[in-house]
Specification:
Ferritin; Ferritin-like_SF; Ferritin-like domain-containing protein; Pigment-catalase-like
Length: about 250
């Protein structure tokens, strides 16, 4: 709204109006118009400032989440690379592990590209004796994949309204396929069935039978496992970092 134009239009119709209103001289009339105009403009300026501050805060949150995801992808990428370079651990015709390794490398490349100069450097990892046998390697791979799936889920809310959410979901669905594949290789169900699986921290909360404040039918008795299996729970950033901590040098 252009208040100066409004007042000018009024004066065109009734040029004596400012003078006829005894309280307002023509000078006070214009002075008042400027005050009102400023008051009307102030919320717009304030809104712009708030939007800018929110955008900055939102961008900071997105960078934090993507770097968190990048840390996990660095870990998984290094894990499979090391396994493939460990003599006698992975069979030459094992295309599953080789393909998962390629996926993890692609995830790292995508996140680094999205973050640009804000991307964190690759940490130094330590894996101890996890590559001493194929059974141990696969057990840890399963734990890492299951953790990754739940980690992405736990951060989705922080990416709402951003393009980064689509990127994260594109990675998340493939990580879920990795988890299912590793579990099947280990002769297990492709989904989390027993909340008492080990390590306990990886499967914390998987006994939940309430979703969106709805107590699910069949949550007890013989159908309890089916109900638990139908839903996967998120992990917080703190929970995930605690799981990953032993592998960070």
């Amino acid at each position: 709204m252009n208040l100066f134009q409004l007042f000018e239009d009024i004066e065109k119709i009734d040029g004596d109006m400012p003078e006829r209103v005894s309280y307002y001289s023509r000078r006070n009339w214009l002075k008042m118009s400027r005050k009102v105009s400023t008051a009307v403009a102030a919320p717009t300026v304030l809104a712009a400032s708030l939007n800018q501050a929110y955008a900055q805060a939102s961008q900071t949150a997105v960078v934090d989440v993507l770097n968190f995801a990048l840390t996990l992808e660095y870990l998984e990428d290094e894990y499979y690379r090391t396994a493939l370079n460990t003599s006698g651990l992975i069979a030459s015709d094992d295309q599953i592990i080789r393909q998962i390794s390629k996926h993890e490398a692609a995830h790292v490349a995508l996140l680094k590209g999205a973050l640009g100069s804000a991307a964190i450097a690759k940490p130094t990892f330590k894996f101890g004796t996890v590559f001493s046998s194929q059974q141990t390697f696969l057990a840890v791979a399963q734990a890492l994949e299951d953790t990754g799936v739940r980690a992405y889920k736990g951060q989705a809310g922080n990416l709402l309204g951003t393009d980064a959410l689509t990127t994260a979901l594109q990675i998340h669905s493939v990580e879920a396929r990795h988890a299912a594949m590793i579990r099947r290789v280990r002769a297990q169900k492709g989904w989390i069935s027993d909340p008492a699986e080990q390590p306990a921290a990886v499967y914390a909360g998987e006994d939940n039978t309430t979703q969106a404040d709805v107590a699910l039918p069949g949550a007890t008795g013989k159908d309890a496992a089916r109900v638990r299996e139908a839903f996967d729970e998120p992990l917080t950033k703190e929970q995930v970092l605690a799981i990953a901590a032993p592998y960070l040098a």
